[in-house]
């Protein structure tokens, strides 16, 4: 897939703002180059797939740091090479059959792609939470934590009337949802 420099710049900016379709466009655009680079190392099939997946994971991790979108392809090729070299240095080799004491793979374990997307979505969510005004941010993060206090306790701590906590919380969550949907992420993106 070919893409103009202007389209690439916009696609990277969209992906940086959390647009999963833009990220998928980057994968489609550069997948052939990444795979071609990895194949030159003549790794086992499993290691080849690991190197490719790790390259895309590095893109998710470092996407916000990309300042020159025109260099994205070259950066991905470099990352793919480094992933291959890392695998070769680790001495990992394809083993035919499994030793008797090895547990079978857990089919319920999340796939690396899902982990990468979840990581990116979580970062995007926190970016939007951090944009809320300080009182609303404190209320939302405190009341949605695993050990959230009751409204009465929160009211005492925050010096806020108990009756205004629920409405303030709902307004804050609506604003957060609206901003997330405005950035191209509807409720479908969180499932």
Shape type: elongated
Question: Which band does the percent of strand residues land in?
Answer: under 5%
- Structural category is mainly alpha
Query: How many strands, which pairing sense, and closed or not: the largest β-sheet?
Result: none
> How much helix, percentage-wise, in residues?
55-70%
- Counting copies of identical and different chains, the oligomeric state is single chain
Can you offer a commentary on this structure?
The chain has about 190 residues and is mainly α. It contains eight helices and no strands. It has helices at about 5-15, 20-40, 45-60, 70-90, 110-130, 135-145, 150-160, 160-180. Helix 2 packs across helix 3, helix 2 (about 20-40) crosses helix 4 (about 70-90) and helix 6 (about 135-145) crosses helix 8. The longest helix is centred in the C-terminal third of the chain and has 21 residues, at about 160-180. The chain is elongated.
Which helices and strands, and how do they pair?
Elements: H1 5-16, H2 20-39, H3 45-62, H4 72-89, H5 112-129, H6 134-143, H7 151-158, H8 162-182
List keywords for this structure.
191 residues; mainly alpha; 8 helices; 0% strand
Summarize the structure.
This protein has helices at 5-16, 20-39, 45-62, 72-89, 112-129, 134-143, 151-158, 162-182. With 191 residues, it is mostly helical.
């Amino acid at each position: 897939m070919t893409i103009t420099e202007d389209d690439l710049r916009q696609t990277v900016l969209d992906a940086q703002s959390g647009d999963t379709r833009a990220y998928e466009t980057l994968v489609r655009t550069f997948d052939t180059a990444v795979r071609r680079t990895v194949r030159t190392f003549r790794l086992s099939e499993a290691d080849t797939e690991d190197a490719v997946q790790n390259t895309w994971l590095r893109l998710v991790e470092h996407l916000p740091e990309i300042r020159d979108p025109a260099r994205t392809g070259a950066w991905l090729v470099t990352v793919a090479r480094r992933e291959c070299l890392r695998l070769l240095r680790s001495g990992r080799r394809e083993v035919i059959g499994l030793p008797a004491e090895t547990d079978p793979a857990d089919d319920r374990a999340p796939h690396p792609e899902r982990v990468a997307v979840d990581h990116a979505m979580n970062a995007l969510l926190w970016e939007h939470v951090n944009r809320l005004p300080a009182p609303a941010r404190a209320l939302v993060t405190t009341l949605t934590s695993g050990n959230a206090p009751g409204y009465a306790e929160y009211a005492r701590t925050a010096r806020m009337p108990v009756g205004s906590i629920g409405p303030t919380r709902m307004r804050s969550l609506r604003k957060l949802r609206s901003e997330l949907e405005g950035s191209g992420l509807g409720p479908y993106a969180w499932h």
